[in-house]
Design a protein that fits this description.
The complex is a heterodimer of chains A (357) and B (785). Helix content of chain A is 44%, strand content 19%. Chain A is built from 13 helices and ten strands. Chain A starts with a helix and ends with a helix. Classes of the chains: A alpha+beta (357), B alpha+beta (785).
Chain lengths: 357, 785
């Protein structure tokens, strides 16, 4: 066999061996080694090229062509195998990194606002957005702010109805736990006037109140929100308008309201406020005792004696006021049947009925 | 107060249905708690006559009855009662009837015998609370008739809640007056009855020595009566009105009180010693009340006395010895007007509420004082015989509440109500007893004697409003100035977002709970009249409440709790008292549960410290935690005070083991508390350009003697590292194998950066060297290899 033929067949068998080796490679690393082995500077093809020197110069171009053909065939085979392996490798990696997406995510324990807190926030926000200013007052009160200034004199039967907690003598006058948030009405008006203000004055006063009464439907501590507005020409129609807006916003639907004449010493006229039952839409159910109405709060036009007690001229100004029980509204909105649940603080109740914010 | 419909109809010829009347009452301001329908409640119960009675073959106590209820066939009934015989007429509840007790009658089989109905007692008909067997009806009861019709059961009973200002409506006539005026119907005249005065009988001698508290007092003797039970109709009415029949005389007086609103009292004349004197107590006098209580009276209590004893706490309760019994034959009747505030005060002092005191303290109608006396005399003589003396009269009831008038302007009432008032409403007020004069815009009203509650123009506007009906007032939104609402307090919200559950506990705790975390110092605020000892002191720390909540929940299969509470704490100060707003946290038990990625972990000090730090960061604040072994109730070595700015604003630590184990809490309990009132406004972050050049981080690990605080170490690092330092922190803490006893290995990672250039190896080497030198000099700490 001539040198040429021998080189040719050497190239052919090299190509055949290489292609077989390429197709046998099952990872990119091995393939890279094969690339070096065949096409590298010290690779097999280079070795073959060394034999070209022994050829007659006239034969060299032909063999050169052969070598280049072989080289590009191998390079193409390497590239295509490499692409295949890259796809396979990615697929394998994806498979290896597969996770069970249905396993729970890592998270911290979930907190929740107490449902009463959420109720307070919601109620206060509604009035705040309407332009009422938030005010607070002390929970340990004197008799003047809790009773006298609100037109509840000592011998008044309504005073006894308040089931008042008294604290043991500590100052120069009897002190008590406020039985309602109405004393904030007095304090807010006094402060406002002392700062040189003149009505209009519109206030929302959320807070804790206390009654010496403890059974299935009474808690010795609960939350109220007092709302009032004093201005020229404030009328009962405004009271009804504000109540309607508030209650519809709070219950997230248009609610019917009904005012019934009632008696509170600090308002005249006074009215209990009912809403169309939010459970049966007024048809009559167990919650509304078949009446279609649920009592939600007490309201009225601020008694002139209350305005006069802080030095507001009741001829010139008038006002409306109402006080609502937060627990009661939250119970109605969230369908919570038992007041005691709020203060038992069972975390199962708090997690379920509380609000995460 | 319960008012039978038929009783109302005695005063006014009402034609409306009970449910319409209930609506009218609500509109007029009388809350209707319920409308009971006794007659409708027993529809389907019919008069039946027992034709035959056989013993049940398989049950000794049962009988097999065949009952005629006026239908073609007799009805088979198995009956367990024994007081009936053949020929008796009894109420029979037929199949399908629902009884007041909720039972619905169905065809049933009792020990093999089929029963098609039920014979009823008073109890099953809702007429009594107990009975001795079936209700046996009179022989002339028509077979087949509805028993409710035959017994003339009340069509409706209104259960009303009368507001304290409307004493005039604490009686049937008062309610009737409102309804009659509203409906434009006439109010019937009160029948006084004929009384033949026996001049031979001496009228009682009465002196009133307390005219202010007792402006009118009437008394009369009635002799020779024979007290018997009151008639059935009266007893039925009293029961329907929620009162218990006592004896004939008392029942008459109660009937009149319910009817006219005037409470009266009857003394046994033979138990009295000498003249009657109405006076104020001198203090220290003894009184044996009808309810069995023995009182020692206070000065100023208003009394009715005879020569030797107190025979009544005026307007509230009579004495036991002077009361009327079955054997009484001679009585002295009292009808009076007592000053409301006087009755109210005495009633409160002795916590002694009676039907009489409820009416007197709200104010009775002075015009009824004599009317009631006449009515009672006539009824007693009519029912129980006897003859009456003249009335002894002290004071003049006509002068009480006389000639009161209120002036108002129509335009002002309209502006306060937001509605026009038609002139026609005046007629309703006239029917309610007011004299109304309109002169253009001016309104003048004379107030009737029974309306103690009317004195100012606003009272008039309420009268108009309730007559028109509050429903007629439109709903208008007032114009409100838009003010920038203050930023709401987010304190508890931020803690909740960090994973804590908010709880709300009562603000009062027990004295022993108070002492857990606060030493005794006379600053506690105690309640005069607590619900119980467990709720007797205003809390000075939120921790006791949180501890109780934690224990409650850990006892209910919770593996861990993270709780937060915001509220006030209360304590005395020299001048007055202080209420501070605080937020408090508690962590105990597992903060991380077993998970597929990690093992469970119990809360430790640093879980809670981290929560407090994060909470402070949200408000632009940082806290310095200063070890403090002296915090009451916390374990030394795991407790700290929290300084925010210059204020000692809080405390944090592990609850003392003895306290926790006394509460059966096994896992360590950590608590923290911050006084919100002591926090200053947080720092407002100012813009700073982002660094253009990279920084470097280096780690150095030292051996420190145990007990050196990391705060001190980091402060030393900061002062040693030079002005390139932008941060330093502890990244590793190790005291295991390889660390000598009494030492800890601390890893410090610090970062350097310069805004103007890229740092060099020399920069970081220099910082490292000065830190190493400082650690050695300050703490004797050596660099670990």
């Amino acid at each position: 066999m001539s040198e040429i033929d021998s080189l040719k067949s050497e190239l052919e068998s090299l190509q055949a061996d290489a292609l077989q080796a390429f197709s046998a490679a099952d990872n990119l690393n091995d393939l890279q080694k094969l690339r070096v082995q065949y096409l590298g500077k010290k690779g097999a093809l280079t070795e073959v090229l060394k034999g070209v020197g022994k050829l007659a110069p006239t034969d060299r171009p032909m063999i050169g062509q052969h070598v280049n053909k072989t080289k590009s065939a191998l390079a193409a085979a390497l590239d295509s195998t490499e692409a295949d392996l890259a796809v396979k490798a990615k697929a394998a990696r994806i498979e290896a990194e597969r996770v069970d997406v249905t396993l729970p995510g890592r998270s911290k324990g979930k907190g929740a606002l107490h449902p009463v807190q959420h109720g307070l926030d919601e109620i206060t926000a509604i009035f705040s957005q309407m332009g009422f200013v938030v005010a607070e007052g002390p929970e340990i009160e004197d008799e003047f702010h809790n009773f006298d200034a609100l037109n509840i004199p000592a011998e008044h039967p309504a005073r006894a109805m308040h089931d008042t907690f008294f604290v043991k003598q500590m100052a120069d006058q009897p002190m008590l736990l406020r039985t309602h948030t109405s004393p904030v009405q007095i304090r807010a008006m006094k402060r406002f006037l002392a700062e040189g203000g003149e009505p209009p004055l519109a206030v929302v006063a959320p807070g804790r109140v206390y009654r010496c009464d403890y059974d299935v439907t009474h808690s010795p501590m609960f939350h109220q929100v007092e709302v009032f507005k004093v201005d020229r020409d404030v009328s009962m129609a405004h009271l009804k308008g504000v109540l309607k807006h508030f209650l519809s916003t709070y219950f997230e639907k248009e609610v019917e309201i009904r005012l019934r004449p009632h008696y509170f010493p600090f308002t005249e006229p006074s009215a209990e406020v009912d809403i169309g039952c939010v459970f049966c839409a007024g048809k009559g159910c167990r919650i509304c005792k078949g009446s279609g109405w649920i009592e939600v709060l007490g309201s009225g036009m601020i008694h002139p004696k209350v305005l006069e007690s802080v030095g507001i001229d009741s001829e010139e100004f008038s006002g409306f006021a109402f006080g609502l029980g937060v627990e009661r509204l939250v119970m109605l909105k969230q369908g919570i049947p038992d007041l005691r649940l709020f203060f038992e603080n069972d975390v199962r109740f708090l997690s379920r009925m509380g609000v995460s914010k | 107060m319960k008012i039978p419909f038929s009783w109302l109809k005695d005063h006014v010829a009402l034609t409306a249905t009970p449910s319409q009347i209930a609506e009218d009452l609500v509109r007029l301001g009388h809350e209707v708690e319920a409308v009971e329908m006794p007659r409708a409640a027993v529809i389907g119960v019919r008069v039946g006559q027992i034709e035959s009675k056989q013993p049940h073959p398989d049950a000794d106590k049962l009988s097999l009855l065949k009952v005629n209820i006026g239908e073609a066939e007799l009805v088979d009934i198995v009956c367990g009662a024994s007081n009936m015989g053949e020929g008796d007429k009894v109420p029979v509840a037929t199949i399908g009837t629902s009884l007041p007790n909720g039972l619905t009658i169905k065809k049933g089989k009792i020990r093999g015998a089929v029963s098609y109905g039920m014979c009823c007692s008073e109890v099953e008909l809702g007429l009594a609370e107990d009975s001795a067997g079936l209700l046996i009806l009179p022989v002339d009861a028509p077979i087949g008739a509805e028993v409710g019709d035959y017994l003339e059961l009340e069509e409706a009973v209104f259960d009303l809640s009368i507001t304290p200002n409307r004493g005039d409506c604490m009686n049937v006539r008062g309610i009737a007056r409102d309804l009659a005026a509203d409906a434009g119907l006439a109010l019937a005249a009160i029948e006084l009855g004929e009384i033949a005065i026996n001049q031979a009988i001496n009228a009682p001698d009465v002196a009133v020595a307390a005219e202010k508290d007792c402006p009118a007092y009437l008394a009369r003797s009635i002799t020779g009566i024979k007290v018997a039970d009151s008639p059935a109709w009266m007893q039925a009415r009293l029961i329907q009105a929620g009162q218990r029949p006592v004896n004939g005389v008392v029942d008459v007086l109660n009937t009149i009180m319910l009817d006219l609103g005037q409470p009266m009292h009857a003394f046994d004349a033979d138990a009295l010693d000498g003249d009657i004197v109405v006076r104020s107590a001198v203090g220290g006098e003894a009184f044996s009340a009808l309810d069995g209580r023995e009182l020692t009276l206070n000065t100023d209590d208003l009394l009715v006395t005879d020569s030797s004893s107190v025979i009544a706490l005026a307007g509230i309760m009579g004495s036991a010895p002077s009361g009327v019994s079955e054997s009484t034959t001679n009585i002295v009747l009292e009808s009076a007007f007592f000053r409301p505030a006087r009755i109210s005060e005495t009633r409160r002092v002795y916590a002694m509420v009676s039907e009489a005191s409820m009416r007197f303290e709200r104010g009775v109608d002075p015009a009824m004082v004599e009317v009631a006396m006449q009515r009672a005399t006539a009824m007693i003589i009519d029912l129980f015989g006897g003859s009456a003396s003249e009335i002894t009269q002290c004071g003049d009831a006509d002068k009480i509440n006389a000639e009161r008038s209120v002036k108002a302007s129509v335009s002002r009432i309209q502006s306060r109500l937001g509605i026009d008032i038609p002139v026609s409403v005046d007629d309703v007020l006239v029917r309610m007893g007011f004299a109304v004069t309109r002169d253009g815009d001016k309104l003048a009203m004379t107030v009737p004697s029974f309306r103690h509650d009317i004195s100012i123009p606003e009272d008039i506007s309420e009268e108009y409003a309730r007559v028109i009906g509050f429903d007629e007032i439109p709903e208008l939104l007032p114009s409100l100035a838009t003010t920038a609402p203050a930023m709401p307090d987010r304190s508890v919200h931020d803690a909740v977002a960090a994973g804590f559950l908010q709880v709300i506990n009562y603000a009062f705790i027990s004295a022993s709970e108070q002492r857990l975390f606060v030493a005794a110092d006379d600053l506690d605020i105690e309640l005069e009249n607590p619900i119980s000892d467990a709720m007797s002191v205003m809390r000075r720390s939120v921790w006791p409440g949180l501890l109780n909540t934690a224990r409650y929940n850990l006892n209910r299969q919770q593996s861990g709790v993270s709780l937060v509470e915001q509220g006030r704490v209360y304590y005395k100060t020299a001048a007055a008292h202080q209420e501070s707003n605080v937020i408090a946290w508690l962590m105990s038990g597992e903060v991380e549960q077993d998970e597929w990625f990690d093992a469970a972990r119990k809360a430790d000090f640093f879980d809670l410290k981290g929560a407090v730090e994060a909470w402070l960061t949200l408000r632009g604040l940082t806290g310095r935690f200063i070890a403090d072994d002296s915090i009451q109730g916390l374990q030394a070595g795991q407790s700290a005070k929290i300084l925010v700015g210059r204020a000692e604003a809080g405390r944090i630590g592990r609850v003392d083991g003895d306290i926790a184990s006394a509460l059966d809490m096994d896992a360590p309990v950590y608590v923290a508390e911050i006084n919100l009132d002591l926090l200053s406004a947080g720092k407002k972050t100012k813009f700073a350009p982002l660094p253009e050049f990279p920084g470097v981080e280096r780690d150095l690990v030292f051996l420190f003697e145990r007990g050196v605080s990391s705060d001190a170490i980091l402060n030393a690092v900061k002062s040693a590292a030079g002005k390139l330092l932008i941060g330093a922190r502890i990244f590793d803490l190790y005291d295991g194998k390889g660390v000598p006893e009494g030492f800890v290995s601390l890893g410090i990672r610090f970062a350097l950066q310069d805004a103007k250039r890229t740092l060099t190896q020399e920069d970081s080497d220099a910082a490292s060297q000065s830190i190493i030198a400082a650690m050695d000099k300050k703490f004797g700490a050596t660099l670990r290899g």
